[in-house]
Amino acid sequence: MLQAGSRVVAQGASSKTVSVSKTVPAVSRNVSCKVATGPRPSMTSFKNGGSSKPVSIDMRDEGGSGLFTSVDPESRRVTPKDPKARVYVKVVYVVLESQYQSALSTAVKSLNEKNDKVCFEIVGYLLEELRDADNLNAFKKDLETANVFIGSLIFIEELAEKIVEAVAPVRDRLDACVVFPSMPAVMQLNKLGTFSMSQLGQSKSIIGDFIKSARKNNDNFEEGLLKLVRTLPKVLKFLPSDKAKDARNFVNSLQYWLGGNTENLENLLITIAQEYVPAMQGSAVAVADPVLFPEVGIWHPTAPGMYEDLKEYLNWYDTRKDMTFKKDAPVVGVVLQRSHLVTGDEGHYSGVVSELEARGAKVIPVFAGGLDFSSPVKKFFYDPMGTGKAYVDAVVSLTGFALVGGPARQDAPKAVEALTGLNVPYMCSLPLVFQTTEEWMASELGVHPVQVALQVALPELDGAIEPIVFAGRDSNTGKSHSLPDRIASMSMRAINWAKLRNKPNAEKKIAVTVFSFPPDKGNVGTAAYLNVFGSILKVLKNLQKQGYNVGSLPINDRGLIDSIVNNGDSKFNSADLNIAYKMNMDEYQDLCPYSESLEENWGKPPGTLNTNGQDLLIYGKQYGNVFIGVQPTFGYEGDPMRLLFSRSASPHHGFAAYYTYLEKIFKADAVLHFGTHGSLEFMPGKQVGMAGTCYPDALIGSIPNIYYYAANNPSEATIAKRRSYANTISYLTPPAENAGLYKGLKELKELIASYQGMRESGRAVQIVATIISTARQCNLDKDVSLPLDDEAAMTLTHDERDVVVGQVYSKLMEIESRLLPCGLHIIGEAPTAMEAIATLVNIGELDRPDQTPLPIKGLPGILARSIGRDIETIYKGSNKGVLSEVELLQDITGCCRGMVTEFVKDNTGLDGRIGSNYMTAFLKFTGLYEDPIQRALKGSKFGTSNRDDLGNTFKYLEFCLTQIVKDNELGALVEGLDGKYVLPGPGGDPIRNPNVLPTGKNIHALDPQSIPTQAALKSAALVVDRLLDREKSQNGGKYPETIALVLWGTDNIKTYGESLAQVLMMVGIRPVADALGRVNKLEVISLEELGRPRVDVVVNCSGVFRDLFVNQMLLLDRAVKMAAELDEPDEMNFVRKHAKEQAEALGLKNIRDAAVRVFSNSSGSYSSNVNLAVENSSWTDESQLQEMYVKRKSFAFNSDRPGAGGEERREIFETAMKTVEVTFQNLDSSEISLTDVSHYFDSDPTKLVSSLRADGKVPSAYIADTTTANGQVRTLGETVRLDARTKLLNPKWYEGMMGSGYEGVREIQKRLTNTMGWSATSGMVDNWVYDEANSTFIEDADMAKRLMDANPNSFRKLVATFLEANGRGYWEANEEQIEKLKQLYMDVEDKIEGVE
Predict the structure, then answer these.
(1) Residue 176: exposed, middle, or buried by beta-carbon count in 10 A (0-12, 13-18, 19+)?
(2) pLDDT tens for residues 236-274?
(3) How far is it, in rounded angstroms, from Cα 1213 to Cα 1205?
């Protein structure tokens, strides 16, 4: 008898060995035999089975076709050896997955051997293979001589169309055409005698009702058809006898198919042949009824059969002789697809079960016949004694699909309900579907994008985590096989999640990981809009209440900072962080199995980073069972040569040592990555579906990973989820406030108020002159056209004065109303009711026509309609500076704020939070109460506003208010650490999508196939029109020929694909949804409808967008190629014009090859590194930054070669860039603007375009800002100035930051560095911005002292940035300013070094 941890090779487990040998010197990593793909279980698979000779894979070689799979379908052809006098029947099949391949081949071989009346030829195609033109032609050729066609699960629209295109012309000639659950158009190919889906869809029958309902609701065909099978007797009585027979044959065929074993498939083929192949009719071959299997049940590879009762299964399981388990052994529930079990393709399932058991876990493997896996979860994963408690400690789905639904649709609410009730961690691993093992291993992309959309993105909506590839696919048999090291990794991780449920909190070890970027003592605890150390302290105090051992905590966050930032063994101001552990080289090389693979990039350990020259140093501080550690940085951010590499380097030895320490020495039960974001998830490796040789997978090892991530950044949170296996918990950004006005801007508003009261008096001329003078002092002359001098100002006419004042007022309102987050958020601290007002006003601005049960109308629109006006007209007039419209919009805005403020007051308790307001209750009791809307509208011009519309909107705002001020940020962490299910929720902009709230949810993105939506398309068309109009007005009425633009992951999640749609609108191609609502088709917008030329584009996708939306990148490439191939004149189609020129200049075969316009980084790499160079001052001149951009961003994504990923196409990238006349980006939310993060300037190609263009012309640069209902297209210069005025130079913003002390100083310094980044990439930062910033932070001695005392390291960087901006020619400072800065730099150096 084996003890737990001893292993039995499970019955049916595949021991298939797949060798991988593509020796190319590009990217060499070792891969073990037996298809091991990484460093576990013994972490030695970076070596080839113990040999020192590496097995090399060229990660760039995707095969000559550039497709995802190049398996020859001919390998699936089975023909009879000797047909003799038998009837010869040819069957052609197409399936989504390959599990039927082996069973069908076996069935046909068996029939050919034993049946004396009929023999079969069969050949099969996997759906994905039909992308290849040769395979498609072979498929059509096979159909020409076929008797029978069988199809199943054909749910990819573009390939479904190919099936219809191939089968429809021969359908009438075919003897039978049998299609099981698929797209409606493919289902309608069904033909069995008189039976056809198209007839049934129009007949008055139960079947007809089912078909219509399924079409209407996009319901899951498989589930529906299964229900149909159960009600067959009722159905058939509605049909004439001949149709009843054929319908019965169809439903029997479905039962044979779902039965899936050799016997069922033999009977399927015989039934169809006997009934519908003319030569076979009347042959009377005996056919057995379908062998039926349980709809749901429990299966085990060593069990005598399937179980339909948990008690019966446990009676067998607990009396097994081959294995015993500890009393407290974790129980893992495993979810399987029945089709793999019945077709005999269960080797990979056996591998998982036996691995989990060998590691000491009990296993309950359940299955479902359809695609609603919530049924077996509810039936078999609860205590059989009826306590209602979960019997399992974790669930691992091996189906790859969402818990409820398959490739056609999903039902996330139903899944979440089932998983919430069970309340255990839910992992969703995946088998390879569209690629063979060798193809996946050789692929940089990793898992096929269609599989990512269906089997990664959709399960994430259910709350699934850890998309680990556990099974490969054999290229010869199509069978799935275990990937031993992937299964070992997945099993260890599942068991470690399960152990969290039962381990006492006092014994759990938690590793809190903070970030330091750029590497500097002043930057420890970097995270977007988060007070990291204040949050950690709050989290640890909460964990202490839950029984965790957190040691003796400092009394405040300053003490926590000092304990980590300052080395306790040296002076207070040592350059070193606190050293928690010194790892010698023997220990490092013994414990870190992949250390040798890092030497190619970093040399022998210890290297030069995180080391004292002998040991590798782990920085941090331990408090009881909690270690707070500082994650090392990438390591190459300060090295100009490494920054120029087109692909990212491996992690350095110090980085590897840190995670080795957490797993092997500290022995963390869980790691908590604290805030947005670190470097782990951005390390090199496959995009999704990593191998063990991908560094994020190797680094995180077997530690459960919980990650606090900003709610407004779902795209990068998704990368963390997929590449570092994180359970991402959302946190709120700080409460937003209106930027307000200050100093000269405030004075200007007062002057305008005076002018409004004295427009008709003699003083008006003088007031306007003062307004103009003050506007100049405030540098508004860059944004508003002002008279040249005082004399010109005095001679303005009445109307001209109104125009000038209107434009200045419009600009002031834009500044004053801009939302900005104030201060930094602390985990678990929800905003007060009053702090939520500005956010609530912005939520209330937007129309929400899709809201149910009633559409929501925006407050400004309701007020405008009450005075007979249209709000869009008012917006347009105000944007142009028409004084009366600016004044009216100001009145509307003020009234909206007034209504919301009064409403919030009525709902605010004594503690300042949402609750009962006693005064409101008293007034209601006395009958003196007046509702807040009435109070706010009293005496205003909007008194007749529609009360029903206002009431409906405020009902929605009441819901939003409760969401804003509650959170589960601390609770969700405790749930995660307790081994419970963390409720999933969308990430995004809470103003656009209040469902993001409350925070403390497991963040997910969206179904990537759902964008762009129709609403996004409408918004995109508006923005593109405004952009083109603005450029035309500044370019002599000419349209720009080419626009270079950037696509961001988060932007497209928040806006449901607006910027994606903008690209399509520019080239004049419209996206179209398929029959299931997935956006994967295109149609040309005619030139007549477009009303302008097609504008060429150069699209640069962020690395995150590439990871999340590869399908949409390929859609864009198809759109560009479609536009280029239209037979239209050059002056009306700039895409075609430039593609023709490029094809000729570069010697390309055709226009299609030249029309490559969609670029990104190489797979596994992120950013252009321009931001790293700027942040670390590690660059010499702008040409070096431009070279980084071109080298790292010139990887093309080609829809003709979808499996090739990003292919380096520098030449075509540069030739496309040479035609650019406009650069363009989008701002997606009020919290993040141009200087808040470095990503925006990192992706800006403005100066690069100028350097490439033959005429050296600087392109126009624009930013679309759709963060409010009044969307704007501004120039880049205007946006940078707006950013400076509302944030960096705004006392409300910087005093809010100073309230967070150490971390606030870093935020201020970061804004200045990012401002200089825009100088470097675009040259669009005005000198006055640096002057005013210098005046605010340097020349004000009190402010300089506050900054230096709070964070001397960040203050030093701030001073250095001013000096650098001057040195690089971006800021013309006077000598006195420079001398002051130099003296301050020396002072702060002395302070840091401890010199008094």
Answers:
(1) buried
(2) 555 566 667 888 888 889 889 888 889 999 999 999 999
(3) 16
